[in-house]
Amino acid sequence: MEKSAERIIEDLEEGLKYYSLLGVEFIELPSSSQETDYLSLKEQILNCQKCPLAQARKNAVPGEGDLETELMFVGEAPGRDEDIQGKPFVGRAGQLLTKIINAMHFQREEVYITNLIKCRPPDNRTPHADEIEKCKGYLLEQLEMIKPKVVVTLGKVASDFFVPNRLGMSALRGNFYEYGRIQVMPTFHPSYLVRNEPNKMLKKMVWEDMKKVMAFLGKK
Ligand code: SF4
Q1: Which of the residues 19, 20, 68, 177 has an alpha carbon 20 to 30 A from that of 201?
Q2: What is the 128 CA–ligand 1 centroid distance (Å)?
Q3: Mutation test residue for ligand 1: of 45, 114, 125, 134, the one with most atoms within 8 Å of CB
Q4: Is 42 in the pocket of ligand 1 (CB under 6 A)?
Q5: What is the model's pTM?
Q6: Is residue 13 a part of any domain in this protein?
Q7: Which residue's CA is the closest to the ligand 1 atom numbered 1?
Q8: How far does the centroid of ligand 1 lie from the alpha carbon of residue 141, in Å?
Q9: Is residue 3, in this structure, part of any structural domain at all?
Q10: What is the pLDDT of residues 131-188, one digit of tens each?
C-alpha cells in the first residue's frame, strides 16, 4: 500500500530525531543524476584542452542558470570580461542581456545562458570552424541535459550553428526554426546593440523577437 504524504513526513521526522539523538548534525543527500552529470560536464569544460583556445584563456566559461528552465540563451563565445570572471555575459552586453531577460519577466537565474564555444578567442575574433567543431559537443550535452523548449541564439555565429543557411541576421531573426524538439529564435547579439547604441530600431526588433518567445512560453 502506498504511504500518504503525511505518513512519509512523519517517518522522516522520526528518522531525523533518531539521527539527532545519535549526535548527527547534518545528512548529505545525494544530488540528482542531472546535477551530477552537469557538474561533471562543467569540470570537463573547465579543464578542456581540446583546441588551441585553451592556451590563451584565463577561464573557460561553461554557462550558468537554471537546469530546469524552458528558456536558454546561446551566444558566440566569451569576451574579455567573461574570460576574467569565468561567467557568461557579464560585460556591457551581458548587462543588456539581463535587462532583456528581466523585461521578459524572467530573472537571470531562471534561464540558462551559455555560448557556442566556451573559451575566448584572441581579441574576440570570430571562432574558427575547427574550434566550433571541437567544442560543440559541450553545448549539445547541455541541450540534452536541460531540454529547453526555446533557445534564443544571439548573433550570426550561434544562429548558424542551429539554423545553417546563407541568410543574414536581418532576414533570419524574428522567426522560429525547429532544431529537434527545440524552437530556435535567432536575434541580434547584445554586443551588436551596444556597439550601435543610437540605432533604437535594433532594440525594437530584438524586443519584437522576445515577445514572440514570451507568447510561445505563455509568459505575460
Ligand atoms: S573552446 Fe571548447 S574545445 Fe576549445 S579548449 Fe575551450 S572548451 Fe575546449
Answers
A1: 177
A2: 12
A3: 134
A4: no
A5: 0.87
A6: no
A7: 119
A8: 14
A9: no
A10: 999 999 999 999 999 999 999 999 999 999 999 988 999 999 999 999 999 999 999 9
**Does residue 100 lie within any of the structural domains?**
yes
Determine if ligand 1 sits within 6 Å of the CB of residue 119.
yes
Sign of CA dihedral 63, 90, 95, 162: negative
Q: Are 148 and 72 in contact (CB under 8 A)?
A: yes
Cβ-based neighbour number of residue 114 at 10 Å: 26
Residue 80: give the domain boundaries: 33-216
Reported as a single tens digit per residue, the pLDDT across 66-102 is 999 999 999 999 999 999 999 999 999 999 999 999 9
* 48 Cα to the center of ligand 1, angstroms: 6
- Those residues whose C-beta lies under 8 Å from the C-beta of residue 53, and which sit 6 or more positions away, are 117, 119, 120, 121, 127, 131
In a domain? residue 20? no
Q: Which of 165, 161, 111, 163 is nearest to 136 (CA)?
A: 161
CATH number at residue 73: 3.40.470.10
Residue pointed to by grid coordinates 500518504: 4
